[in-house]
Amino acid sequence: MPVAIRPHVFSLYPLDEETIALAERSFRITCPGDEGHELWYTKADGIMVRSQRVTPEDVAKIGPQLKFLGKHGVGVDAIDVKGLSAKGVVVTNTPGVNATAVAELALTLALAVARNVPFIDREIRAGKTITKQAGGEGGMQLTGRTLGLIGGGNIGFTLGKMFHGAFGAKIIVYDPHLSPAMESAWTAAIPSYRRVTSLDDLLPASDVVSVHVPLFDSTRDMIGARELRLMKRSAVLINTARGGIVNEEALAQALDEGVILGAGLDAFSTEPPTLAQFSSLINHPRVVSTPHIGAASLDVISQTAKSVVEHLRDAFAGNIRDEVKL
Ligand code: NAD
Questions:
Q1: From CA 326, how far away is CA 41, in angstroms rounded?
Q2: 145 lines ligand 1 (CB under 6 A)
Q3: Ligand 1 lined by 148 (C-beta under 6 Å)
Q4: Active-site choice (50, 72, 212, 242)
Q5: Domain D-isomer specific 2-hydroxyacid dehydrogenase catalytic: where (predicted)?
Q6: Is it the case that residue 137 has pLDDT exceeding 80?
Q7: Which one, 40, 47, 119, 194, has least CB within 10 Å?
Q8: How far apart are the C-alpha atoms of 313 and 27, rounded to whole Å?
Q9: What is the CATH number of domain 99-289?
Q10: Using an 8 Å Cβ cutoff, are 241 and 225 in contact?
Q11: Contact, 247 vs 273, CB < 8 A?
């Protein structure tokens, strides 16, 4: 069915002025707070979605005019992609745009946990005297260590290059679905990187394990008690992907029992994380927590939103890029 010459796109999240100006070149754009925004179900030819949920109930309310959903970022676990596809709605995302920001946060968390900086800082602020010896003894240097990446896509690859460049780290990747393009990128950038075919090969060999896979039914609880026991006692676990991939109860127990050294977490099963819900993790001296800020700096948000606009513009013109198919 032909779409309107100037499609009407509704953004389900607020956009900055530059992104609105870019969108207006190709669409009529309606943002939250604009008159009639609530009519998107039956008026939108395209929608822009960031962290909003699009549930089967939402999909049931969507009219036949909707052609495209542009996802800000990559994770589509909060979107009923199958339901949308069944209605003929094409879902696109923006792979790679926020990879550097998320990789930088993963690196920050790894360093913070390895050198115990947040805990020491908290103790000093609380008026305790921490000597150089006490503050430094539990610290782990990252130079020459081994980084184990679970997921070798855009973020894993960017983090791998950072670790390799900054610390001369050895890089191991577990990613049975790695695309041929990413495989070539890995080989070109870090010829010494090693692919393994199971987590059981990656976990015991890694000093830092960093998770960069989507949340699917098949990746839920991918890191549980058994996997944590396979890790080195000195290892640090980083999850900037999604809550639910690392089993939080098992992680809290492993940390309490000294099964691993510590964890840096930007993803929780309920967000934003609260002390009431996650006290055993958040209160642990060797856990550093952030509320899903990996791609949340204003410049990255704006850059990613512009990429969503460009994806929708191209899709309406017949050039669908980065379609999500489950
Ligand atoms: P990507 O699609 O480029 O890479 C994901 C990789 O995971 C792919 O190479 C894929 O083959 C691999 N994979 C899929 N299933 C796997 C499995 N069962 N075992 C091992 N590997 C598997 O995505 P990306 O840009 O690297 O992002 C990774 C994840 O990070 C996203 O899915 C998203 O959930 C999360 N993310 C978080 C933030 C944040 O703010 N913290 C921001 C962006 C993305």
A1: 23
A2: no
A3: no
A4: 242
A5: 42-320
A6: yes
A7: 194
A8: 8
A9: 3.40.50.720
A10: no
A11: no
Report the nearest-CA residue for atom 9 of ligand 1.
153
The alpha carbon of 161 is separated from its chain's Cα centroid by a whole number of angstroms, namely 17
Residues 241, 265: contact at Cβ < 8 Å? no
CATH 3.40.50.720 segments of the chain: 8-95+298-316, 99-289
pLDDT in tens, 240-283: 999 999 999 999 999 999 999 999 999 999 999 999 999 999 99
**Residue ranges in 138-215 assigned as alpha helix (H):** 154-167, 180-189, 199-202
Is residue 271 annotated as part of the catalytic site, yes or no?
A: yes
Annotated catalytic residue 313: no
CA of 201 from ligand 1 middle (Å) equals 20
Closest ligand 1 atom number to CA of residue 213: 7
Mean pLDDT of 129-150: 93
**CA nearest 120: which of 137, 141, 104, 106?**
137
* Domain 8-95+298-316 class in CATH: alpha beta
Residue 1: per-residue pLDDT:
54
Probe ligand 1: pick from 213, 266, 288, 300, max atoms within 8 Å of CB? 213
Termini Cα distance of the chain? 24
Q: Is the pLDDT of residue 150 over 80?
A: yes
Residue 292 appears among annotated catalytic residues? yes
Which residues lie below 8 Å from residue 226, measured CB to CB, with a gap of 6+? none
Q: How confident is the model at residue 326 (pLDDT cuts 50, 70, 90)?
A: confident
Banded model confidence at residue 2, pLDDT cuts 50, 70, 90: low
The answer, yes or no, to whether any atom of ligand 1 lies below 6 A from the CB of 174, is yes
Q: Is 199 in the pocket of ligand 1 (CB under 6 A)?
A: no
The alpha carbon of 218 is separated from its chain's Cα centroid by a whole number of angstroms, namely 17
Quick check: CB of 198 below 6 Å from ligand 1?
no
Decide whether any atom of ligand 1 lies within 6 Å of the 102 Cβ. Answer: yes
Site to substitute for ligand 1 among 49, 186, 196, 212, most atoms within 8 A of C-beta:
212
Q: Rounded to whole angstroms, how far apart are CA atoms 168 and 142?
A: 9
